[in-house]
Design brief:
By secondary structure, this protein is of the alpha/beta class. The protein contains 13 helices and twelve strands. The strands form four sheets. It has a six-stranded parallel β-sheet with strand order 7-8-9-10-11-12. It has a two-stranded parallel ribbon with strand order 1-6. Strands 2-5 form a two-stranded antiparallel ribbon.
């Protein structure tokens, strides 16, 4: 069997990786501490950018060393997974202080802190992106398939507070907001593909939140129920993706929240699977599956031919290394619902959705990535 030559690869990771101590120290020294109001977007500091270059080269080497066929820059230039993009464009500000979000970070005991709130303070307009500049450096410094991650369009709407948050901001009409947001995404994707990006991932928490019944009243307060919101998400994502070159692979990562070991939602994919797999025009999915909070593999029965799911069965939330046998059993379980050739293995999320990162070490991270590659070689002849 020939080696699989299109992403997502049989062993692939979501995007973010733990920032080394030296990189975090340099960021504080040159930018000052990250506060609720500071350093939320691109920094523009040339000295820090050169330091980041060196650490990005190191993390590219790590991914090659463990046997991965794609590479990201670890999101090393970002404070968080989503703010680098939105804070580049016109029309947005954000805060983690004194704001009220319907979504919260939790652990097994209780609610811990609110989400960041995005404010739509002006008309949304695309500007040349720090994400594109970061991708250009990645592409020039790897012989693997360079992968770029950006927040999915529904994330922006969701973090802005849905209809109530959008209406009465710079917009009196939600459709006008979506039209400007879609236009900005189309320009961003055009700039990325012009720079050579052929593997683009949309990181999304908005759709998994629709699977959590505790948030149902939130979506009803936005003027419609979860299914209507899901249909709108699918329509707007597809609008953003129209016209991409035929050789571009787009995947979606589905996550219930991942911040320093915390999470934000629970519930299986059952309420969204048919739409997610069959009405959104992407080629692959990274699905969180590291805890029972994500439900069973049964929704994979809706996965159509030609699409691949990377099973997020390796946890980034802690240091415990999954055994190869455990991962193989989980893959076998998933293959009861979707053919093995349409599956791959991945972590459930990134290792560092924000600068601080999850509670494990770089050695733990490397061991988990290497274990994924090992299992993929054992399970799939085309790995």
């Amino acid at each position: 069997m020939p080696m699989r030559d299109a992403p997502p690869f049989r062993a692939d990771h979501v995007g973010s990786l733990l920032r080394p101590a030296g990189l975090k120290e340099a960021r504080v020294r040159l930018l000052g501490p990250d506060t609720a109001e500071s350093n939320l977007g691109p920094h523009g500091n040339e000295e820090l950018a050169k330091i980041e270059d060196g650490f990005v080269r190191d993390v590219i080497a790590l991914q090659k060393r463990v046997g991965l066929r794609s590479a990201t820059d670890g999101e090393f230039r970002r404070r968080s997974w989503f703010s680098e993009l939105t804070m580049t464009w016109e029309g947005f500000s954000a805060t983690r202080q004194g704001a009220s979000s319907p979504f919260s970070w939790r652990n097994e005991e209780s609610r811990q802190q609110d989400f960041t709130v995005v404010w739509v303070e002006g008309k949304i307009r695309w500007r040349p992106s720090a994400v594109v500049r970061a991708f250009e450096f990645l592409k020039a410094n790897t012989d693997a398939e360079p992968k770029v991650t950006i927040p999915a369009p529904p994330v922006v709407y969701c973090f802005a507070g849905g209809d109530p948050g959008v209406v009465g901001s710079a917009y009196d009409d939600v459709d006008a907001f979506w039209e400007d947001l879609v236009a900005a995404y189309r320009q961003e994707l055009a700039a990325l593909t012009a720079a050579g990006a052929r593997y683009i991932q949309l990181d999304d928490v908005a759709i998994p939140f629709l699977c959590d019944p505790t948030y149902e009243d939130v979506f009803r307060s936005w003027g419609s129920g979860p299914q209507a919101v899901l249909a709108e998400y699918a329509r707007r994502i597809n609008q953003c993706l129209e016209g991409l070159p035929a050789d571009v692979t787009v995947t979606m990562h589905q996550c219930r929240g991942n911040r320093e070991g915390l999470w934000a939602a629970a519930g299986g994919y059952d309420p969204v699977a048919e739409v997610l797999f069959n009405e959104i025009n992407v080629q692959g999915y990274f699905l969180e599956y590291d805890t029972p909070r994500a439900g069973t593999f049964e929704p994979l029965r809706f996965l159509p031919a030609g699409k691949v799911v990377a099973l997020g069965i390796v946890s980034t939330k802690g240091p415990t290394l999954e055994s190869a046998d455990h991962l193989k059993r989980r893959i076998d379980d998933a293959a009861r619902y979707a053919p093995l050739e349409r599956l791959a293995v991945a972590p459930q999320c990134g290792f560092a959705s924000s600068v601080k990162g999850n509670p494990l070490t770089e050695a733990d991270e490397e061991a988990k990535l290497a274990r994924m590659a090992e299992v993929a070689r054992d399970v799939w002849a085309d790995a």
